[in-house]
Amino acid sequence: MNSRSVAIVLAGCAFSYLAGWGTHSLMVDESNAPNSIANAGSPSRDRRREDIDETEKLVARWMDRLDGAGPTQVAGEIPPGELRVVINGVMTGVWGDLSAADRAKLEALIGEWALDDPEAALSWARGLRHPQQREVGLTYIAAALADGDPHRAFGIYAEQEKVTHTLAEGKILALITKLCGEAVANGPQALLDLQRRIPRNETNGITGVNVVYPDGFDYAAMLDGLAESAKNGQGEWPYELSSPLSQWAVKDPDAAFSYISSMVGDGRRFQFHDLTERLVDRWGATATNEWVGRKISSLAPAGRRAFLEMSGIINSPGSLVSVINGVTDTATANELRYEAIQATASTTPRNFEVLADLPTEEKIAIISRLRGLKQTDYLKSMMTKWEIPPEKIDLLLDAVRMP
Fold first, then answer.
1. How far apart are CA 163 and CA 303, in angstroms?
2. Is 159 exposed, middle or buried (0-12, 13-18, 19+ CB in 10 A)?
């Protein structure tokens, strides 16, 4: 079906909802109308049919133009009185995913209306009953107003409880980045308040917002606030601020690590990558791992394993190997190897790789301490690869399966 045919079909639906999906249909329900047969050819009914025909032609004409030229250019040519009818013609199909072409048309058309008559456009968008249609309307209005009135635009975007599609991504990202730049100068609470107003994320991705935290910024308060948001189920946003931990760590690594280690045991989580990514850029990977190793070694024994768990390293064999190899004290490093394997043998068998570079006797000493392993095939294959004698392999497997 060509675009003109689709437009005509859509227009027929759109006309019934000309006032924004909220007015009565302009068609007569013949089953309930008295004397319907007698009125079939009445002048009023003929006029209605003529109006529908004209509406279909109007929408089809502009849809053809939109298909054949740039939507932004065409949107500016549509008379204000016809703009809403054309928007309804496109919006009728908004029930599932939008094609790139439909997104471009709607952004141009709704944006043009919002700039021409923002109150009318807002009233229409707020009145849309289908959630996705309302999301389309409010997001594109916010995008259109972002340059001229960013605070109002953000307020419109934030009227949504959640978003399911990343619409007008460039403009919304620029808007949030601008407002974050203002908020961060006023401290963590202002920035947290702004972020918590962003709709909940139900899209398929996350877009990063570049925030530069100034000197003297209270990183601990910001991280505490983000943890509180996550605890309250508010931690998933479609636009995510730059990691405060990452910027704190490169400015004052010891203070950042001290903050994290103070959270050991309280159920908090953080991304190990956030702690180390900028340090790797500055110091290199080897020096960074050695620094982390020294820091972990400084913790109490119970805190070491807790650190591995809260950072997620314990479930990332590659990072686990690198970090433990950075621990210079052999006894401490081997204790971490044992604890990491014991905690994850059933879920992350690849953690046995932390034993790969050890002498055979040290491998055997750590394996012999393990208990309660239900799946041992991977361990058996690794011990065979390490050329541990078969008779010892059988004894070790019997031991690790014990409760």
1. 39
2. middle
